Request: fold
Amino acid sequence: MAITLLCPKLTCRAMLRVPESVRGKRVRCPECGTALMVPLKTGPTRQQASQTPKSKSPQ
Ligand SMILES: [Zn+2]
Reply:
């Protein structure tokens, strides 16, 4: 399964598809040549902090 990354360079913003085997390594954007770090874990960075608890009601 490939990882999709967005080039951090604002003037490029190319979508890169890299294999999972490059996690934790650096890859180079084919469009602009910027080296970017492939994160070890990808996925939604959203935390579950915004969820309202159901079980604890003050009554
Ligand atoms: Zn780029």
